[in-house]
């Protein structure tokens, strides 16, 4: 039987506990949605004021040089690279995850057109994050070159899905709904043996679990900075390309920032060397600058300590739900096995939407995902073991009292 | 002979003079680069703090609903639409100009595939803004469907360029270098008569000159918000699609935000109705929110008053350069005719780069564009006639004294 005192004892031993003071969290909130929008670093407000007041207001156009705006995508990319097993010069922060996925997939297909021209199948998961599938669909529809998307159910039965027709395998490292995680090295090796290029979506992995892109033999990766990396709402995303592919091909969104000589104003496109060719148009500087605040905090922490605490919080959440809410119809859909899960835990409940609305009204902020999924993000930099205890106690109270049946929790809002 | 006193007299009569107090401009600067990065509205700093501290920090994920983040692209699009002759529901603020151009061009080509399937030529100007040409190149290369780009020199000899092979005509309304402006209605009518769809880049037009997209019979338009609309460095761009085309076709960058039911998490893409289908991935909210500050100021002003003052400032600049710097090798490359120019004036000078560096060091901030072009943006909301006088007086002093020959003005920086 786990008590709140046990949780307090675990907090006292927590080497990461001090990081919480670097984040601005409102009073009365237990924030379990850092996998959707990470919390705000205190430093982000100051940085934002600096960019707006000094760099934009006073520096004006001169800040492209003087404040280093032009170097931001590569400089932040190099910092981010340290968190995902990438070397300097392999990552840039730019655009959105959806757009970066489009670039990487187009580049991968072009490589395969050269190396294995008959291959016309892209494999992904039916339960992949929908926008990933939409972007694949959009590219295939645009190309009209006979590509098809093969969707496999749940965790991939690789030996069935990967045959000699498969050009690209596109997977989320950690599933947005269930939290299930792939063994990136094993899957990449299997794909490579099949002549298939891998493209990994790290949206729910970067900053949440140790990622080793180069060591795992991945080919392409994209991801976002506003979840576990705490970059701010809609902050620019990232793209990584394995060194072997970087100078080989263009990508189709060939805007000025990816040009070899962006200020020579030449009418013909000439791709920059290396990862910079994956840049396209002018980036939202004020949003991008804040990404550095979240990255700097993550780089102070040991990723293995983050992982250990994340797993401990997940185990605690799962155990407490069984212990406190055992008589309620909550079904864990996240793998219990450590190697097979990321940093959030999810439960199905027949009235999941209403229960989550009630939790949020009580200050326990997780989120709801169709169908019937209560999702709880575990962010070791600003959550304690006691937070988990208090969150589950609130959940128990809501379920025991059936307060989720109150009319105000039944109304659906546009965004959940 | 025009004197500084004449300029002061003109300022005293200027009905737009009061707008300057809404902008934060550093002391000692005459800012003639608002066509590259607009000045900061005072209100942008407060708005930015609000988004970062309250909406992100306190509201966290709830702000997608509570702070109206989800509605921002359409809400700002409707405000912006009032400045470019668009009706509500026809414009969204999103992504970058380069990306929006890619979407619009792909959509236009798809329409032509249905209506005039043999057409495989895209026409643009050799002197169009290079990123526009790069994006066309990227899309053609991706499609591998036999498209070619026909580049015409200088102002378009339409009757030669528009033949029965031309699917799409892509032009900048105002040329980024020379400031030359097309008659949008005349060109659109000529294109339409030829069965050619028009795609207008309004980067140097929106907020600078009256634009009447619907009345001109344009088909597609894109543009940026960080120049004459004062949205902040790299603030998100916009896209407009004529009502006749909006529900007809998809666009290929089909991310979650353009889905009919973005939170239903369906594996198949179903485009939203209307302009919202031109949205793609998650937007940089903190940058996007500041766009509203610039738009709100522009909407307080009469666009025709802005245009009248812009032309007066341009005439003044041209006249003063002739009067004060007549013996120096400055060549006006902007059309003198009002109907044929936008809101900046440009001069060639054999040592244009060095002269501009010297001007900037003296607090007169214009910019340099290859080859040899001194470019001066005229932004009626925060420039006075006396500013123009003082800027030209500084230019005269630099040219008379040849101070641009000093070694510190010879060094080229990465970004100009």
From TrEMBL, chains A, B:
Keyword Hydrolase included in the entry's annotation: yes
One family name in Pfam for this protein: KYNU_C
Binding site for pyridoxal 5'-phosphate: 97-98, 129-132, 201, 204, 226, 256, 282
Keywords: Hydrolase, Pyridine nucleotide biosynthesis, Pyridoxal phosphate
Nuclease among keywords: no
SUPFAM superfamilies associated with the record: PLP-dependent transferases (SSF53383)
Classification via InterPro entries: Kynureninase, PyrdxlP-dep_Trfase, PyrdxlP-dep_Trfase_major, PyrdxlP-dep_Trfase_small
EC number: 3.7.1.3
Pathway recorded for this protein: Cofactor biosynthesis; NAD(+) biosynthesis; quinolinate from L-kynurenine: step 2/3; Amino-acid degradation; L-kynurenine degradation; L-alanine and anthranilate from L-kynurenine: step 1/1
Modified residues (N6-(pyridoxal phosphate)lysine): 227
Cofactor: pyridoxal 5'-phosphate
EC class: hydrolase
Recorded GO MF terms: kynureninase activity
Catalytic activity of the protein: L-kynurenine + H2O = anthranilate + L-alanine + H(+); 3-hydroxy-L-kynurenine + H2O = 3-hydroxyanthranilate + L-alanine + H(+)
Similarity-based family: Belongs to the kynureninase family.
Function field: Catalyzes the cleavage of L-kynurenine (L-Kyn) and L-3-hydroxykynurenine (L-3OHKyn) into anthranilic acid (AA) and 3-hydroxyanthranilic acid (3-OHAA), respectively.
HAMAP family hit by this protein: Kynureninase
Subunit structure, as described in the record: Homodimer.
PANTHER family: KYNURENINASE
Name listed for the protein in its UniProt record: Kynureninase
């Amino acid at each position: 039987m786990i008590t709140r005192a046990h949780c307090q004892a675990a907090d006292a031993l927590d080497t990461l506990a001090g990081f919480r003071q670097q984040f601005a969290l409102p009073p009365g909130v237990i924030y379990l949605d850092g996998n959707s929008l990470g919390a705000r670093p205190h430093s982000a407000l100051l940085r934002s004021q600096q960019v707006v007041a000094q760099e934009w207001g006073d520096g004006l156009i001169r800040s492209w040089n003087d404040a280093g705006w032009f170097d931001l995508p590569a400089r932040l990319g190099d910092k981010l690279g340290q968190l995902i097993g990438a070397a300097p010069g392999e990552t840039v922060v730019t655009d959105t995850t959806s757009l970066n996925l489009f670039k990487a997939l187009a580049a991968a297909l072009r490589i395969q057109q050269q190396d294995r021209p008959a291959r016309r199948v892209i494999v992904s998961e039916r339960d992949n994050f929908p926008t990933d599938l939409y972007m694949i669909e959009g590219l295939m529809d645009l190309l009209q070159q006979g590509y098809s998307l093969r969707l496999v159910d749940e965790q991939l039965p690789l030996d069935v899905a990967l045959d000699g027709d498969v050009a690209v395998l596109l997977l989320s490292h950690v599933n947005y709904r269930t939290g299930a995680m792939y063994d990136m090295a094993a899957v990449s090796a299997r794909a490579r043996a099949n002549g298939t290029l891998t493209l990994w979506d790290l949206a729910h992995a970067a900053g949440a679990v140790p990622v080793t892109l180069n060591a795992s033999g991945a080919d392409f990766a994209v991801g976002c900075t506003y979840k576990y990396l705490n970059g701010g709402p809609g902050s620019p995303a990232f793209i990584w390309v394995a060194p072997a592919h970087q100078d080989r091909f263009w990508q189709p969104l060939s805007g000025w920032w990816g040009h070899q000589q962006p200020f020579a104003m030449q009418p013909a496109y000439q791709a920059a060397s290396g990862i910079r060719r994956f840049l396209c148009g002018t980036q939202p500087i004020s949003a991008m600058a804040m990404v550095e605040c979240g990255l700097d905090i993550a780089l102070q922490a040991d990723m293995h300590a983050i992982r250990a605490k994340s797993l401990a919080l997940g185990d605690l959440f799962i155990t407490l739900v069984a212990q406190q809410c055992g008589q309620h119809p909550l079904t864990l859909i996240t793998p219990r096995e450590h190697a097979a899960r990321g940093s959030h835990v999810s439960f199905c409940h027949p009235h999941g939407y209403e229960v989550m609305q009630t939790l949020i009204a009580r200050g326990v902020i997780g989120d709801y995902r169709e169908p019937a999924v209560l999702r709880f993000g575990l962010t070791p930099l600003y959550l304690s073991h006691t937070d988990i205890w208090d969150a589950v106690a609130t959940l128990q109270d809501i379920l025991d009292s059936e307060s989720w049946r109150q009319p105000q929790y039944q109304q659906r809002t546009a965004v959940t």
